[in-house]
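Annotated sample (chain length 425).
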Amino acid sequence: MTPRERMRALIRREPIDRLPYQFGGPRASTFAAWRRQGLSEEQQANWSSLVGEEGMTGIGKFYMGVHPLFEERVISEEGNLRTWVDGWGSTRQDAIVQPTAGFATRRWIEYAIKNRDDWHKVRDRLDPHAPQRTRPLTEDEVTPHLGPDSYGWHPPGGSHWKDSVESCRTTDVPTRLVTTGIYWAIRDLVGMENLSVMFYDEPDLAREMFDYWAWFLMEILDEPLQQLDVDIVMLNEDMAYKKQSMMSPPLMREFLLPNYRKLHAFFKERGVQALVMDSDGYNNQILDVLYPEALDGIQPIEIAAHNDPEQILTDFPGIHIHGGIDKRELRFGRDQLRAEVVKRYATARRHGGYIPHVDHGVPPDIPLRNYLYFVELARGFCNGEDLDTWEPPASELEQQLGPIEEMFEPGSAIASAYAMDEEMG
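Output written by the structure step:
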């Protein structure tokens, strides 16, 4: 089977020749730590090829933020702290020099939307038909940016979806669109605490914004999905804490479910195999409300947030999930690591529809050699090797590494981050 055939069959719970090779991606700070543990620059640049991970292909640029951007403005700069108004109209603080590669330390002072007038000003800059949303910006269209990353900015780059029509039809790998979900979008503009209050104090405004975002997504994606062969649409939401969701189930049923029903029907009518939510935190309350009528799957199934892949697959029959290998267990000895990986692949074999991989970004406190052992173990289990007895032969991946110069020391990273926090606080 090709990777695309395999993914489609797995989603539909049809027989597959093996599980997909998916392991979970290291963060920028993780690669920085691993370069000190023997990973070469070339190996980092060709990471997916090194570990043999099967990827997916995108379908082109879809910019879902404010356009045109509001004018960015610096309010003050003191030491390493910048207070400024970003391109989406929010006032925030950022560390000018970030303490950790791949993660920006920021704090919002005031969000773009505080009332209905603010919403109308932002909504005027959320035209789904603006051509700049789907074509790469020319050099003179790219505005200067004050932030440490692209958050709150319209970045350059990407390709037009029309250039992907033929490749999406013929590719051997799954095609996937990852974009901004409803709760994430409105929370970014209003703020989580403010939005939580707005559900009760100004429910009509909250409903209008949720409804608008669902319409916005369908408007911008209608023509592309009429022509592109897309397997998976993933909506980024990140709408849960460690033990519960950020919206209560009654609020989800009132504000979120009607719009997810529309989106689910919209994507299915255009041939999408699965509508999947990306949400860190505890997933069960979300699934209680949205699955199966408005959602086909969810990831990354964080174990630290009290998720259990076995329980999810039992309680929500037919669901497609991926993730669920506890990243924390990869820090320790190989016996402990192996026990965690075996547990998750046993679940995948019992139920189907589940691709085990690390349950979110791979953090820097996981030693490189541990991770490469995990990769070789997982590949064997994907291929059907015996869970109780199989061990990878002498590590081919480890043999390709250079010498260890320094292991990651969490204390120094924490000290750096806390020093930054003191300046920000």
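Annotation: The radius of gyration is 22 Å.
Annotation: The chain has a mean pLDDT of 94.
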